[in-house]
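Job type: complex structure
Entries:
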Amino acid sequence: MMADLPTGFWSGWVVVLTCVSLATLAWVVLSVYFAPPDKPDAEAHDPVWDGDLREGSSAPPLWWFWMLLGAMVFSLVYLMLYPGLGSFEGLLNWSQGKRLVSSYEIYEESFDARRAEIANLSLAEVQADRALMDTADRIFRRECSACHGVDGRGQANLFPNLLDVDWQWGGSPEQLEQTLRGGRNANMPAWEAIIGEENTVAVANYLLEFDNREHAGRAVYEQSCAACHGVDGAGNVFLGAPNLADNTWLYGGDLDTILVTLREGRQGKMPAFDERRLDAAQLKLIIAKLAR
Amino acid sequence: MATTHSSQDSADIYEDTVVIRLIQFSVLWAVIAMTAGVYISAELLWPTMDFGQFWLSFGRLRPLHTNGIIFGFGVSALMATAFYSVQRTSHVRLFAPKLAWFCAYAWQLIILLGGLSLLAGWTSTKEYAELEWPFDIAIAVVWVLFGVVFFGTIARRKIRPIYISNWFYGALIIVIAMLHIVNNLAIPVTFGKSYSLYAGAQDAVVQWWYGHNAVGFLLTGGFLGMMYYFLPKHSGRPIWSYRLSVVAFWAFTYSYIWAGPHHLHYSAIPEWVQSLAVVMSVILLAPSWATMINGIMTVSTAWEKLRTDPALKFIVLSLAFYGLATFEGPMMSFPSVNVVSHFTDWTIGHVHSGALGWNAMITYGTFYFMAPRLVGVPLYSVRLANIHFWLALAGTMLYIVAMWGAGVSQGLLWLSVDEIGELSFSFKDIMASMQPFYALRLIAGLIFLAGTCLMAYNLSKTLVGRKAVVVKPPPVDPAYAIGKEAAV
């Protein structure tokens, strides 16, 4: 970039150092390469190291000289065309900053119209287009799969499965857009300190047989859990409170894991994907992939 | 010291026992560091092979692999061959042999403890300079002492002209001292942690000035010193053209030092620095090929020896790989090629065409040459050495081809976009599709490692339990003699 170009003294320093170095190299090569040959009788007096080591007197090949000369001419031309000699910007007026800008321009020229079109398609239209759905898959693998898994089925008992019927924050296109654009923060408190160990164990056991209304843990559930997860355990998509009555478990449905969840609480964080991360077309494609 | 002679007697015989020891250490590090390399290449196929152990993770074994090869295998070999050849080309015993022994053992201790520190997670995070500041200081001290032994020997030489191989070893010692000290300047925080004196783009430029010239002066300059002594010595022919060697030496030392920033194309470093690196990288092709031509022409009247002599085969083949790698390098330094090649396995392939094809092969050749001569018995098995040659060649070729395939695919697939401007392939899918290439690379590494193990066996059978042959310097032509011999 412009700002990187040295000015004043340092520009001159770069120019002089580069040119003097190239000239010195040329001089060394010329003077050694084309020095007059040794006198014929000098052969007998060539130094011999270690019994039989000698430095041969063959004339170096001329094509090598042309090769070096070619490289040096190339260098000079390159330094005339591109920024290299101090503050001289080069005759092509090329810079990596300008190249970046022009790459964006070319990209926008080639694709902006089509992407605006996609952003305005209906979900059904997008879902009917095989090529667009393939693209959606790739965007999903790039942006989402690190947490939700390559196939979108969640992973590590921490990140929700996106292909099942359960939606922690709702599965309508509008809710999905809200989740993606704004991110989500789910907060399950640590209950043991509040309700005591006995009640914690009781409610954990109750969750494993939710339909058994006679269970000893039912009372604790209704008092402490139902506010978010609902009396019928259906959960609440506005709070990100999962359904506890079905067989889908976000953090794991065995007794030990449920106890951990109750004792330590859980924090579920979905980051926000703003316009810089997913533009309108990409957002549309992701929602088309996820919405059903 | 292992020699049995009185100090009076030993004053004018070569100090070769230290060379034998260094060869053994070098081979040991080669086996260890290549095993680490094979292991991490397997981890790229089966990531769970770290078994949850931090010290077995890719991030810790990879610097162990690179440092073990460059500083364990490479530098031990360079010390061994420098000590061997500088005595013979100076017609004098090593200057300060005890210091030479100290350098040899201190260096091994640095590699051993340094290797363990890398496994323990100590790292300055600078590539090929990962060792933390206590090791950096120790390396600087031992390296300077290595220089004292080498230049001390040159200073006491009995023959006036300095043989060309010593120019290269000298450049190696001087430039690496400079690079190592400047790049590793840091502020220590604790015994195992320091922060570089440089920040941001400056840090990057200094790091790659170091990184590229460690390749240039250690892995190239030093090994060229090997070539200039052992190739003419072994083929019994003079170096083809003295003038070409002089030109190549100066053009090489002069242009290499500028080329480092080609590792940082399209980055935050100034563009004029990038452009100069391109230009100098292109010029660098000429001296590199000058040396290759000089070597090939030197053996051009001794081809028949290649049929029977595995040592010479290794050295000549290494020149071919040297020519290949030094052609590929300048091409990759062009920004438009670099856009495809950078951050792909192409770079890994390029490095290994140099490290396996050039550095390892020429070292193997010189070891097969030196070992029998050092102890005065024939090589334990020429047949095994020949098998080693074919294993090394097959391993290297397979490795390079696999990484070319992987690297060029990665570079092109990453850049490809579909009809709406989205990436045509997700990174993960490209990564997954690399499996066949990585499997080939693992096989290649195993083949190359198997060859190295054969050599370790062969050399230990040749060397272990034997004493260094007593060798006295041959007389010097009075026309070129220095000091006492000149007066005779």
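Summary: Chain A has three domains: 2-34+48-94, 99-185+272-290, 192-267. Residues 8-33 of chain A form the longest helix (26 residues).
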